[in-house]
Amino acid sequence: MSQAYISARCKQILYMIIDSDDFVTLSQITEELHLSKRSIYYEICKINDWLSEQEIEEIEIVRGKGIKLDEIKKSRIEMAMKEENSLDNYVFSPMERIYFIICYIIKSRKPVSVDCMADSLRVSRNTIFNDLRVVVKQLQDYDLSLKYESKKGYLIKGDCVRIRALFILYYNLLRPISEGNILKGLADEFDEREVDRKNLEKLEEIEARLNNSYVDGTLMSLSMLIPLMEDNNSELYFSDLRKEELEATQEFKLVEEYFPKLCEDEKIYLCLHLLGSRVSMNSVEIFNNESSQTNYEIAKALVAEFEKFACVIFDDREELERSLYFHLNTSMYRFRYGIQVGNPMLEDISREYPELFDLTKIVSHYLEQQIGLPISDGEVAYLTLHFGAHLKKEKPKTEKVRVLIVCSNGISAGNMIKHEVLKILPNIEIVGVISSKEAVNVQKICDIVISTFKMKCLVPVIVVHPILTDVDRKIILNHSMFRNLSGKVDLEQLFSRIKKFVPVENHQALKAEMENYFENNCAEIVPMLEKKKPGLLNMLYLQNISVEDEQFTWEKAIKKAGAPLVEADSITPEYLGKIISQLRYYGPYMFITKDVVLAHVKADEEVNEMGITMSVFRKSVVFSDFYKAKVVMVMAVKDQEKHLKILKDIMTLFSVEGNADKMIEFDTPAEVLEFLSESLEME
């Protein structure tokens, strides 16, 4: 066994280098992993210690360029890391130990001793005892308990559906760090591992016959639970179970065929997971007409709610409604029967799109009301991808490079990648978004592939994360096929303008130097990557705030609140007229709380630039018998994303009950602005 240990962070750095066909700069590693350059040098020293143990040549940092490996060295390092990904070498973090212990106990189907846990994790008994205290608290969140049987060990007690849901959740949280190999330790005996393997093969055959794709890790986790299902020691209960509907599905028929030993309840349980874990499916509808209609109405309502709260109007509204409808056809099974699939992209989505995620979370309250159940953050993240993929983007204007998106994380994630790529490269053509299984002979339809995994292809492939990072964006922009599409720098044009000032004999040297410069300074020449979005306090100027003592009709209140935007030429007077017309036709739908109106409409021609105003009315403005406003804001939007941070701030401000009442006590706009600053804690 190797004496030098390679940490998870070292592996992240190595995979960044392996996945790149070009030099990886220290700046790229810094941005991706949020490390200082000093820390990176330290990690590279550890990597080289480990490489020496593996009898692999150490990696070198080329000054001014970074790190680049040849294919032979990449292959040797990948092979060595795969060998390291075993239970004997991996060092678990404290939280990973908790997840492993819970999964280990559930998988064992018998009491597990402290010694067994300590041996499996290679830690002391005292460490395990401390971990078990945390395990107890984790289980309490799921109404489960940890029980000790004298001289035997620990068991997890409670509703078996919740126990299994916890296994699937924590298994999938562990899976990314181990690539599956570490978790083989959950099955101690060889025979047990062989059973899990055969069950997995059966589930994969079902997947192929259904022409479906499932959330990553679902089939593996289910294969490990099947022995528990075969024991038939659990009492399963599903409320509002449509048994006849489920038994008519192709999923149920295939479960019966491949797992005949399961009792009927367990067959239903397995069928529900297959139905609720799909990321893509064939065209056969599995819901009855009533269910389908209900899901479609919910999808339409969710889009309407998002438009209301996000101050946007979707140009492709029907397409978004359809995508949400198909998503709900799957997710309703999860909601209704408490199926836990997790979302491996949750952390990335909430980090990369915080405002969009928070707005989607607000909109999801409508869905919670419809189904009578809370919606997890993982499910909110899936919905975020759907909404984000349909936000307005610039239309391409020039000759296009054909790009194919291949994503193993579902079509919604693939569409989000499409959306992000078009933001930085509007002059390309996205020819399609497909799954890994559909990626056959793709060279016939595209010039380049952007994929979330490594794949062999006759056209260039750029490998990115399922949720694009700034490093991913820079890698895409710096690819030779896109380098001159950014609209910022055309190297040939620039060279043709400069060369006339340089002797002919120096032309080649000049061009080489320019190419080298642009190659190593892409961050300065590519379009600006995502800037920090402005918040409410960045856009709500003092002159755009008013405090009114008079009684206003709602029409005059809208005009009063919007007047500063008209005066500043941010909007035309017709914009306010459109708002009033919409409110007359549809009623007071622009209320975001019982006291606050956020007035806006889609009006590209009447909006010159983004802006927002706020008017505080000491005498409530009557919009109807049931709707009276103390605060009226008017927002003008040109871009469907730049204002999302403003909306998040507004929701944060007025989510605190009584804030509108506090504002009507102020005498001046300055006092209002000071209150907003204190409430939002501006940095």
Structure description:
This protein is α/β, with parallel strands linked by helices and 683 residues long. It is built from 29 helices and 13 strands. Strands 9-12-13-11-10 form a five-stranded mixed beta sheet. Strands 6-5-7-8 form a four-stranded parallel beta sheet, with helices on one face. It has a two-stranded antiparallel sheet with strand order 1-2. The longest helix has 22 residues, at 289-310. Mean pLDDT is 80; it is low at 281-289, 393-398 and 522-531.
What's a quick, concise take on this entry?
This protein is an alpha/beta fold and 683 residues long. The protein is built from 29 helices and 13 strands.
Count of helical segments?
29
Oligomer: single chain
- Beta-strand content bin: 5-15%
- Most strands sheet: 5 strands, mixed
Strand order of the largest sheet: 9-12-13-11-10
Quick one: how many beta strands? 13
CATH architecture assignment name of the largest domain: 3-Layer(aba) Sandwich
CATH superfamily label of the largest domain: Mannitol-specific EII, Chain A
Overall mean pLDDT score? 80
Tertiary shape: globular
Report low-confidence residues grouped into runs of 5 or more.
Answer: 281-289, 393-398, 522-531
The CATH class of the largest domain, by name, is: Alpha Beta
CATH topology of the largest domain: the name is: Mannitol-specific EII, Chain A
Computed structural class: alpha/beta
Q: For the terminal residues, how far apart are their CA atoms?
A: 51 Å
Rg result:
29 Å
**What's the structural domain tally?**
5
Binned, the helix content reads: 40-55%
